[in-house]
Structure formats: C-alpha cells, structure tokens
Amino acid sequence: MANHKSTIKRVRQAKVRRLHNRYYAKTTRNAVSALRATTDKSEAVALLPKVNSLLDKLAKKNIIHKNKAANLKSSLAKKVNALA
After folding, report:
1. HSE-CB for 31 with a 13 A CA cutoff
2. CA-wise closest residue to 33 among 20, 44, 45
C-alpha cells in the first residue's frame, strides 16, 4: 500500500463499505432462505413483500445487481404461488 493520504483514506472507506455491504447481503440471504423454507402459504404471502422490498433497496444501492434482484423476486414469487 502506498503511503499517500488519499490511499490511506480509500482503505478506510473500503473497509467500512465492505462491512456495510456484507451486513445487508447477509441479511437478504437469510430473508430469502427463510422465505424458501416456508411451507405455509399465508406466511409466505406475508413475507414476500418484505423480501421484495429488501431486494429492491439493495439493487437501488448497487449492493446487488438489478437483474439479480429481479431474478430472485421472480423465482420467489413463483415458489410462493406454487404453495398449496
């Protein structure tokens, strides 16, 4: 690492952003896996808008790609609709 003020600041910023992004990505993965594990239709229908909102927020902030968010939302909606 170079010993420039700007480089040192960049390292600090990157560390903070990495932790921030990891937290939100992990939270989203947990929410998606919880929705996928749900077998109760009413519970899944209640959970789907919250997960969709979370995915939209992450895509808006470029933590995940917008197409990845769209693909996840689509597959989750398909799964919820298939529940008996």
Report:
1. 19
2. 44
Alpha carbons 84 and 67: distance in angstroms, whole number? 28
**Percentage helix, strand, coil, to 5, in the chain?**
85, 0, 15
Question: Distance between CA 12 and CA 70 in Å, rounded?
Answer: 32
Three-point CA angle 73, 49, 81, nearest 5°: 60
* Separation of alpha carbons 64 and 18, rounded Å: 13
Q: What is the CA radius of gyration of the chain?
A: 17
Q: pLDDT tens for residues 19-77?
A: 999 999 999 999 999 999 999 999 999 999 999 999 999 999 999 999 999 999 999 99
pLDDT, residue 1, reads 64
